[in-house]
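Example 202, ligand zinc ion.
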Amino acid sequence: MKDLFKGVKKFCSEEYGRKKKLFEELKESQAPHTLFICCSDSRVLPDLITESLPGELFVVRNIANIVPYWRESDEYLATTSAIEYAVLALEVDNIVVCGHSNCGGCKALMNPSSTGKMVHVAKWMELAAPVKEAVSSIEYEKNKQVCAEKENILQQIKHLMSYPFIKKRSDEGKINVYGWYYDIGVGAVYNYDWEKKEFTRI
Ligand SMILES: [Zn+2]
């Protein structure tokens, strides 16, 4: 196992020093330009793939980059509250929903029995149920998985638009909403082109 403590010591003695000025500027507040919603997958690193610095991205991660549809509730809604904070308090300019290749969450969606005892994962993935229907006619299994990963990005953007304050800002041109697909093995990121209705490589 990687020695995490060693990593922290190296960060404190080397990387922090290199970015000392930036960390000092950030110590009292943050003003990220982008809310970045991505999967918890260890291979998806938003700061790395966008070459962003601390303070730039407000990141929300969960299984399969899901956005729960809008509802007022007295439950403890982690993703919804983070989205609310990013948009209403931090007033981000952009929202990126970033899916990725070989997504375990999308695999679970396509094959619910694979979740076994992970009842909460199975339940969580119900938020992407329309995706399964949308790709049901695709025969080749590998294509089906990739299409589900891409379709899921668009489905979660639909959910984002159910948030009244996001819909309003989007309609007024005050916030940009992007759907991205990160292909891990290739090192490529694709942005959804709403006119062409396809993902095009950035
Ligand atoms: Zn994933």
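Summary: The mean pLDDT is 96.
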